[in-house]
Structure formats: C-alpha cells, structure tokens
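Hi support team,

I submitted a single chain yesterday and got back a structure, but I'm not sure I'm reading the token output correctly. Could someone confirm the output below corresponds to the sequence I sent? I've pasted both exactly as they appear in my results page.

Thanks,
R.
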Amino acid sequence: MAYVDLYREISGVVPKLPIDAAKKFVNRAWADVRRKNIWSFLLGEANWTSPGVVNGGLVTTQQGSNQVTFNAAAQLAINAIGLFPSSITQRQFRVGIGTIYNIWAWDSVTGIATLDRPYAETSGTNVAYGIFQCYYAAPVKDFKGWISIVDIINFNDLVVTMTRAQINMRDPQRTMFFLPTHCVYYQQDQNPASATYGWPMFELWGQPQYSLTYQLYYFRHGVDFTADQDQLPPAVENDVIIALAKNYAYEWAMANPQDGKPPVDFKFLMGKSMADYDRLMREYRKQDRETVDNWISFRRAGWGWANLYGYYNAIGSTASPGAPW
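Hi R., thanks for writing in. Yes, this is the structure output for that exact sequence:
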C-alpha cells in the first residue's frame, strides 16, 4: 500500500481530521514500527576506500589562521587527487604529530587549503606535511549501527564497539598507523559545504596510509514517507501501520472536540487499535526474524569482539573460531 492510501484511510477515521495530521500520524506510526525491530529491510552494505598519503612538496602554516599555503610541488600533488576514492575536502591535514585538521575547502589555483579551525601549532614555513583520510562519513544519513567492517585483503575484522575516549587513552597523538584495527564514532560532519553535512562520521584507527577497501555491513534507522507513491517494504503490511495511526487519530479527536461539542470518548477504540497493533507487530517481527535474525548479530557485536564469527582462509593461511557464545 502506498503512502497516499495510508493517510487517506486515516483521514476518514475521525470527523474533520486534517489531511496533514493524517500524514503525520502515518509517519509517526511508521517510525515506531521501524524502532521496534531490527528489520531485514533496514540492512545495508557499502564500501570505504582509504586513499594513499599525499606528502609531496611543502606547506606554510600560520598559527591562528585556518588557511595553509602549499608550494608548487605540493599544489601539483594535491590537484591530482581527483574525486576517488575521496575528494580533498573529505581528507585530513597534519604536520608531524600535531593536530589532525579537516580540510574544508581547496583553491586549486592559489594552493590554499581552508581548515575546519585555526591552526594551533607553531607557525612553519615550507615544512613537511601529510594529507590522508582517517575520518569517514557513514554510508547513509540514517545510519544506526555496525554489523561488521571488514578489510578482506588482510583478513581483518575491525573492532566497532570501542569509544574514541578509549582510543585516546591508547594513542592520544595518533602515532599508530598503517593498518587500521578499530572504527570509532567521531562526530557529525560539520562542513556546511559537504555532501554529507550532518551525517555521522567515524574514525579509522590506526590511521590508514595506503589504498585499502573495506566492506561495510550495517543497520539503518529508515526514513519517513515523503512522496505519495512511497511504499511499505514487503516485511510489513499496511494493517500494522493503520492500527497505530488510528490510535493517534483517536487521541487527536479527544483533544480537539468539534463545533463546541463535548469530546467523544474513543478510549474503547484506542484500546482495540493498540491491541491490533501489538498482535500484528508480534506476527511481522516473527516472520522477519525467520528471514534473518539480526538480533543475534546486533547484540553480539556489543560484546567487543573483533572477529565475531569464525573464519578460515586457505590463501592467507589464517583462521579463527570466532567469539565464544
């Protein structure tokens, strides 16, 4: 059933219910359904590819300024970056073991990069630098949580359950690099010019220094209906959405009596709609869990094991029994 059919049905449940309210109640019910289960239709798969380090030429920095200037050799190296695996404005800048800065803008003509905040270290003229990528945007804006991040080439299943504070205790200067072993939450993308502005971002630690592709498997929150033609996924039928949306409509009717009349008591119908909702949710959750039991994967990941499942690789001569039950 399409979104338009859902909200039109709800608009006729109680007298004079505005169509905008019916739309809101349908989306509220749809969001509640998404939250109540780790649904198969909210699984996602994607990739990250880390770029190699760019460090050709030299840079001049000024303490207190958020702009750094690269010489001709560095400018040539940076202009060659292109868009894949990531653009210059998705990468980070650093001098020595100083602060890691996000690059928010790049002028390919002047060779000036704009950082996300003023340069805090001592000013330097024609010093060595590094441009790399250790912060990565989530695959989708409505990202919910990781199932796994796998470096298949090195048979490496990254740890996704530690915090950035724990990494800070282990390596506050971020001097561990080359082959990442952990992925931790960093912050939301703060660059207003970024295509992923506001999306969750994650840090790979230790910092990748060469091109490496990661296979991402994750859960998402899902999104509300916007277009009339938007459809429910096959795992969820229209009746469960309608049952809960009816309850919201009855609440609205009791709070908004019409034409000065006393409010109608919809408590019996509210109880009936919630009973229908609870019954239908149990049925659809059971059916979806028979398709793929995401609860096991999602909850076991919280135990903090790196190699959650057992594996064997004849080419690499590596094996693991996985995390114990």
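A quick pointer for reading it: The longest strand covers residues 143-151. Let us know if anything else looks off.

Best,
Support desk
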